[in-house]
Amino acid sequence: MIKLSFIGFRHGHIMSIYKYATKNPANWLITGACEEDAATREQLASGGVVAITHHDHRAMLDEVECDVVAVGDYYSRRGSLIMEALRRGKHVIADKPICTKLSEYDEIAGLIADRQLIITAQLDLRFSPRLRLARELVRDGAIGKALSVSLTGQHALSIGVRPAWYFEEGRHGGTINDIGIHAFDLIPWITGLDCVEIVAARTWNALALPYPHFNDGAQFMVRLSNGAGFMGDMSYFAPGKYKGTLPQYWRLTLFGDEGVLETGPGGDLMLCRNGRDAPEMFTPSPLAACDNLPESFAREIAGADNPLAPSTREVLRASRAALAVQQAADTGETGVLLD
Fold first, then answer.
1. Angle at 133 between CA 128 and CA 134, to 5 degrees
2. What domains does the chain contain, in order, with CATH numbers?
């Protein structure tokens, strides 16, 4: 059984981990839940979903036993919280992004290496049946050598719906780091190619009129390790009422020297191959019931390998790439090599 404690609930994504643990008490025991923000504590109490045990995360870590710390506070707070957990010898499961500064990333990566700890992040696109099918086809050579990759992951800005801290200076940390981290995990996972150079990156303020410091537009181009180009648009421009149903929501297009593959949120996947008269349509198989982030994380802690789930190495790789591309966008740098 894994003993699990929570620090921060100011982004709703972490609730999926909390609810999963409560529904699987044979394998997961929640030993503590800390929320340091009074307004969020009140909201959680009125909802009756989370039993808050502590108002101070250090006190909780001093007083409760846990193997794993789950972190879901606002973005720029996460780095220090994760470092605190790692220094105490705890594995970490976090919402993404795990931090907002490359200096924080360096310390997190060093602590993990020194203490042989495990970290995962909620990179949930890996658990999409259509994207797993895309990976299988690409890895089997369906499009041949990858030449060009594009991914659109536009979200709705949703001012007034998203937590207010999103739009407070210094708390969000950048749109590429927020949304684009999925892209920097997904594309190497599907293609087997590394992101090696930042060719161009830009963020800008287009729609967030009450918040002139918030750059809701975000685009980038990255060179992959075989020379292919990877273009991404991770902006907050989607109409709010569509809620992830637009054809452009996580639309993936891969051109290769043997064909082109495309898939979007509808679920089916289209493959057009050289020498064939008509597109082939594929319907992905449903995931196994036990195929989810918490259980994959538990298996990694136990020493088992699962290439379909984000490993510690891959979480760190995607995090560093997202932070580096965000920094390039913020500073106007180009031609930046990625480790």
1. 95
2. 2-117 (3.40.50.720), 125-337 (3.30.360.10)
3-state secondary structure of 298: helix
Report how far residue 104's alpha carbon sits from residue 332's, in angstroms, rounded to the nearest whole number.
21
Written as one letter, the residue type at 117 is L
Cα radius of gyration rounded to whole Å, the chain: 20
Split at pLDDT 50, 70, 90, the class of 3 is: very high
Q: Where are the alpha helices (DSSP H) in 140-266?
A: 175, 181-191
User: Tokens 């509808």 appear where?
Assistant: 266
Q: How many other C-beta atoms lie within 10 A of the C-beta of residue 143?
A: 23
Q: Residue 16: which H helix or E strand, with range?
A: helix 14-23
Decide: 257 and 80 in contact? Cβ < 8 Å.
Answer: no
Q: Say what angle helices 181-191 and 312-331 make with each other, to 10 degrees.
A: 130
- How far are the Cα atoms of 104, 186, 221, 321, 323 from residue 101, in angstroms, in the given order? 5, 21, 21, 12, 7
**Beta sheet of 336-337, edge-to-edge order:** 280-282, 269-273, 259-263, 251-256, 146-152, 229-233, 217-224, 195-204, 336-337
Distance CA 65, CA 43 (A): 26
| Per-residue burial over 44-73, b = 16 or more CB atoms within 10 Å of its CB, e = otherwise | beeeeebebbbeebeebbeebebbbbbbbb
Res 288 pLDDT > 80? no
Q: Which amino acid is at 262?
A: E
Condensed to tens digits (0 to 9), the pLDDT of residues 101-152 reads 999 999 999 999 999 999 999 999 999 999 999 999 999 999 999 999 999 9
DSSP 8-state secondary structure symbol assigned to residue 238: B
